[in-house]
């Protein structure tokens, strides 16, 4: 189907009326995914027809009067860069039309037209068009999500539905901004009727045409999605526009979704917010004063001067308890903790590189599912202040790390959160993350997702009769649709296409 869910529109161009009739007959009777919206006898007539009908595909003969097929391809491509072509010619020498294949031509047919050959070609063209429109929609959607300005005409061409709903679902903390071990972006598959994009595999932004959702309230649908995908022990932030909006508003709505995610996201606190009700939203936004940190830092300085490092830890823990009660958002906590940790480094002359410290800082917010866990992860590098020595560094060995990898491989169908694995091996989450960066150059999530996808591929190779739902469960995913998006992001194929 075309970008609007209807049949692909076709223009047929040939100076032989018999050939035009034969092609149209085959398409109308045996190609349900296509409809002929017009015919032309030469390239000049075709240009005018293309301008009026905006087809998805042009089937054109090469040898024609006035303007031949190759000239038509070049001229029409310049006016409509997204237009696709299929060349028809009595010339069986592909070198003749080689240049055309560099300019939007998807396939090649030879005369006389044989129905079986044309059906194979149209099936091939259908798959290419389907992927073409998918890639274009994904590219435009990603640009919108990245804040780029997209021409209204382009949005309307590839998102032609009249009205949409939008929702943003995030598990745990905000995306990393500096870590080199960022997870691949997440995209919906070609088989889904709506668009999905995530800056990593902990996030999904949904753009759903109103026709697809029907009478079902968006919040009901998204609540089911959240329940299927939520990892045990995690927290989620679900933001949505429950009222439909028009295509020209897509960019604005998506910007708002990201803005409110940054504003509201709070470590350990699951939240649901309807962005259509801005008045209630504003009441939920805390307005803490960063200057309160001055008093805390002065208190810490006094403790540091007298060597009372145990009191430093208690002071910060007390502040954390207050911030948790007040539901301080992650953005504010990041500001506060950067100042506090910078002070601690200054007092202790900590030798950890600033780059490694930043990675640990990001990981702490990314993986922590409660304020208590966040404090433990942030303070881990400085725990030697009160314990006289650093964390047991004998675990920093290839042999120890190999045990972790073996365990993950043998329990791949289980949830395997970073917290659970860290507890199992009796080390902190911060230190576990550091081990994965050191030995795999990946984050824990990225490594785990990678071995899950490789196991899924292995299962598909060994038994192609398995259902995608069963494979998803065998490698640790409860939601087959979420698994399909992850699989596609890592391999470039949907599980269904891979099994083929």
From TrEMBL:
Q: What GO molecular-function term can you cite, just one? A: DNA-binding transcription factor activity
Question: Which GO biological process annotations does it have?
Answer: phosphorelay signal transduction system
Q: Does the keyword Phosphoprotein apply?
A: yes
**All copies of domain Response regulatory, residue ranges:** 9-126
- InterPro entries, per the entry: CheY-like_superfamily, Homeodomain-like_sf, HTH_AraC, Sig_transdc_resp-reg_receiver
4-aspartylphosphate modification, residue list? 61
Query: HTH araC/xylS-type domain location, by residue?
Result: 402-500
Which superkingdom?
Bacteria
Q: Could you list this entry's UniProt keywords, alphabetically sorted.
A: DNA-binding, Phosphoprotein, Transcription, Transcription regulation
- What role is this protein assigned? May play the central regulatory role in sporulation. It may be an element of the effector pathway responsible for the activation of sporulation genes in response to nutritional stress. Spo0A may act in concert with spo0H (a sigma factor) to control the expression of some genes that are critical to the sporulation process.
What is the name listed in the Swiss-Prot or TrEMBL entry for this protein? Stage 0 sporulation protein A homolog
């Amino acid at each position: 189907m075309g970008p609007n869910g209807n049949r692909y529109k076709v223009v047929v161009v040939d100076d032989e009326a018999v050939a035009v009739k034969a092609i149209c007959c085959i398409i109308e009777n045996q190609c349900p995914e296509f409809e002929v919206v017009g015919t032309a006898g030469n390239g000049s007539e075709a240009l005018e027809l293309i301008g009026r009908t905006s087809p998805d595909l042009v089937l054109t003969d090469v040898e024609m009067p006035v303007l031949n097929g190759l000239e038509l391809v070049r001229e029409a491509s310049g006016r409509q860069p997204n237009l696709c072509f299929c060349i028809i010619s009595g010339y069986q020498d592909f070198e003749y039309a080689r240049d055309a294949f560099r300019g939007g031509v998807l396939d090649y047919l030879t005369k006389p037209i044989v129905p079986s050959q044309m059906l194979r070609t149209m099936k091939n063209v259908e798959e290419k068009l389907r992927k073409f429109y998918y890639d274009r929609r994904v590219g435009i959607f990603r640009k919108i999500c990245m804040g780029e300005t997209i021409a209204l005409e382009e949005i309307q061409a590839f998102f032609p539905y009249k009205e949409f709903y939008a929702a943003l679902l995030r598990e745990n903390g905000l995306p990393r901004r500096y870590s080199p071990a960022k997870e691949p972006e997440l995209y919906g598959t070609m088989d889904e009727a709506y668009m999905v994009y995530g800056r990593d595999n902990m996030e999904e932004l949904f753009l759903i045409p109103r026709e697809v959702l029907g009478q079902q309230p968006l919040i009901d649908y998204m609540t089911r999605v959240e329940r299927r995908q939520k990892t045990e022990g995690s927290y989620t932030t679900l933001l949505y526009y429950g009222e439909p909006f028009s295509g020209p508003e897509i960019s604005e709505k998506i910007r708002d979704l990201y803005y409110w995610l940054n504003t509201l996201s709070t470590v350990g606190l699951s939240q649901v917010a309807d962005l259509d009700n801005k008045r209630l939203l504003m009441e939920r936004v805390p307005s803490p004063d960063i200057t309160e940190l001055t008093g805390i830092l002065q208190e810490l300085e006094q403790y540091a001067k007298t060597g009372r490092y145990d009191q430093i830890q208690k002071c910060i823990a007390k502040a954390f308890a207050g911030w948790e009660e007040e539901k301080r958002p992650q953005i504010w906590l990041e500001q506060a903790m950067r100042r506090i940790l910078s002070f601690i480094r200054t007092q202790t002359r900590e030798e950890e590189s600033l780059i490694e410290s930043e990675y640990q800082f990001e990981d702490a917010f990314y993986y922590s599912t409660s304020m208590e866990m966040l404090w433990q992860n942030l303070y881990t590098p400085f725990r030697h202040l009160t314990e006289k020595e650093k964390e047991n560094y004998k675990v920093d060995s290839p042999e120890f790390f190999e045990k972790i990898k073996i365990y993950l491989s043998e329990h791949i169908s289980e949830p395997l959160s970073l917290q659970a694995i860290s507890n199992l091996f009796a080390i902190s989450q911060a230190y576990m993350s550091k081990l994965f960066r050191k030995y795999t150059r990946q984050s824990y999530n990225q490594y785990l997702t990678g071995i899950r996808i490789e196991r899924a591929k292995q299962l598909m190779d060994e038994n192609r009769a398995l259902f995608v739902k069963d494979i998803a469960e065998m490698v640790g995913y409860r939601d087959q649709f979420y698994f399909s998006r992850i699989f596609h992001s890592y391999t470039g194929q949907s599980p269904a296409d891979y099994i083929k």
